[in-house]
């Protein structure tokens, strides 16, 4: 590999134009001369940063929004024109996750034991200390109430103005898509297990109107459906709209194509699930804009799951990493896999670093900069640029692995976007924002 930009930075056909030491981020979205960054939970309670990127060698912070609620984060941001939407989602602490498991566990143990479980028995099953159970019960008694999304007027980028907060439910809103008419929101809702799609009419941003819901059969438990999977294993990660179709990554439920010709009556027209045998969940799914080899082609990317400690990392040895999929979607009723792209563990010095992740996460959600080039955020593998012009044999044409920042053991490239100039933007889960330039073929 060629070493450029800074000592310890590994790259091929990519150079860094600039860097900012911003707190860790979940998403970067570029619109015109501005980048909108949604931050993951941080000590400063920073939620959103708006950057002026007109001069890519000297990006500057124009404004920042803090998260008022310490139990929430807003790690996703999207903009159309002068309207910005950011999410509000619960900070999933270890205690919060256990609180979600507690009601079902109590019921199961009571059936098994013929009595209420003790704190010691609950703690043993939850994997926490007995002393932690009161905190878990307190979290259960005080469910999260701030799930939803906020709509901002960003006509003045230096002073974003809140228009409306739209409450949803449960853990709140995760990733989402939007256009000038609608917001396609992935959120939990009453009566459902796991995130579903809720579409809102946002033409009057002061009063969003819910127009439809979509879910996978088995999620609507209030309607009598029964999931065939444990917990929230099958759920919507998010959809992307292309024409009259929404393309959905559905975690361990695989991928779906949803017809929204009638936005009030979304219907599933295509589905493919590669779980099992592949262990990593489906994150993002979208079509290639032109036919390749006479076929309609789509791409999907997994999210490498998180190993929390060295013991869990050791258990995963030999397990396939999250990867990029290329699929034949010519016949939506019979979606077929064509190829996979993976990054070798030999291609990053941080491929086996705990607690970081190595493997795929996300690609840019548009086709700027090349109609067959995918710009992929690959956690400890950095940025990978993959050409799918031959859908049976994706080829890597460039990469960039930033150095670890903030004293962390490895980089964690989390998201990427590409602007109309072909410049690339990446953010790290730990810290850092980079503007990059690709020197290969477009």
What does this structure look like?
With about 450 residues, the protein is mostly beta strands. The chain has four helices and 31 strands. The longest helix has 20 residues, at about 95-115.
Key phrases:
4 helices; Methylamine Dehydrogenase, Chain H; six-stranded antiparallel sheet; 10% helix; single chain; mainly beta
* Fourth-tier CATH superfamily name: YVTN repeat-like/Quinoprotein amine dehydrogenase
Strand content: 35-45%
Please name the CATH topology.
Methylamine Dehydrogenase, Chain H
Placed side by side, the strands forming the largest sheet appear as 1-2-28-27-26-25
Give the SSE map.
Layout lengths: L1 E2 L6 E3 L1 E10 L1 E7 L2 E6 L6 E7 L7 E7 L5 E2 L3 E4 L2 E8 L3 H20 L5 H8 L6 H9 L6 E6 L7 E7 L1 E10 L3 E7 L7 E6 L7 E6 L19 E9 L2 E7 L3 E5 L7 E6 L9 E6 L9 E6 L7 H6 L8 E5 L7 E6 L16 E6 L9 E7 L3 E5 L7 E7 L11 E6 L5 E5 L2 E8 L4
Antiparallel strand pairs: 1-2, 2-28, 3-31, 4-5, 5-6, 6-7, 8-10, 9-10, 10-11, 11-12, 13-14, 14-15, 15-16, 17-18, 18-19, 19-20, 21-22, 22-23, 23-24, 25-26, 26-27, 27-28, 29-30, 30-31
Helix pairs in contact: 1-3
């Amino acid at each position: 590999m060629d070493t450029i930009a800074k000592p310890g930075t590994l790259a091929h056909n990519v150079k860094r134009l600039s860097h900012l030491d911003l707190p860790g981020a979940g998403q970067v979205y570029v619109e015109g001369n501005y980048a909108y960054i949604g931050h993951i939970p941080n000590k400063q309670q920073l939620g959103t940063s708006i950057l002026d990127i007109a001069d890519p060698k000297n990006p500057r912070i124009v404004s920042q929004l803090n998260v008022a609620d310490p139990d929430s984060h807003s790690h996703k941001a999207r903009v159309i024109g002068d309207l910005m939407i950011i999410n509000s989602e619960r900070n999933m602490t270890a205690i919060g996750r256990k609180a979600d498991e507690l009601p079902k566990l109590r019921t199961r143990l009571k059936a098994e034991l013929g009595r209420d479980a003790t704190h010691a028995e609950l703690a043993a099953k939850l994997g926490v200390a007995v002393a932690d159970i009161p905190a878990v019960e307190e979290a259960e008694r005080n469910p999260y109430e701030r799930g939803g999304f906020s709509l901002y007027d960003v006509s003045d980028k230096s002073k974003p103005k809140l228009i409306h907060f739209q409450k949803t439910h449960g853990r709140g809103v995760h990733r989402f898509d939007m256009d000038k008419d609608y917001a396609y929101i992935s959120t939990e809702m009453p009566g459902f297990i796991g995130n579903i799609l809720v579409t809102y009419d946002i033409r009057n941003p002061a009063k969003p109107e819910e127009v439809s819901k979509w879910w996978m059969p088995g999620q609507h438990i209030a309607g009598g459906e029964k999931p065939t999977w444990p917990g929230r294993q099958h759920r919507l990660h998010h959809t992307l709209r292309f024409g009259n179709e929404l393309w959905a990554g559905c975690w361990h439920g695989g991928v779906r194509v949803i017809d929204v010709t009638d936005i009030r009556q979304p219907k599933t027209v295509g589905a493919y699930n590669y779980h099992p045998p592949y262990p990593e969940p489906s994150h993002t799914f979208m079509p290639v804009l032109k036919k390749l080899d006479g076929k309609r082609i789509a791409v999907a990317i997994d999210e490498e799951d998180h190993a929390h400690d060295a013991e869990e990392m050791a258990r995963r040895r030999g397990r396939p990493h999250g990867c990029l999929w290329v699929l034949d979607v010519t016949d939506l009723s019979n979606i077929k896999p064509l190829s996979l792209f993976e990054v070798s563990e030999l291609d990053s010095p941080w491929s086996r670093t705990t607690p970081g992740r190595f493997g795929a996460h996300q690609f840019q959600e548009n086709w700027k900069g090349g109609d067959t080039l995918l710009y992929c955020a690959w956690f400890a593998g950095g940025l990978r640029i993959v050409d799918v012009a031959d859908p049976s044999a994706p080829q890597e044409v460039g990469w960039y692995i930033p150095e670890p920042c903030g004293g962390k053991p490895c980089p964690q490239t989390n998201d990427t976007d590409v602007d109309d100039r072909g410049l690339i933007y990446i953010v790290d889960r730990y810290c850092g924002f980079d503007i990059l330039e690709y020197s290969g073929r477009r």
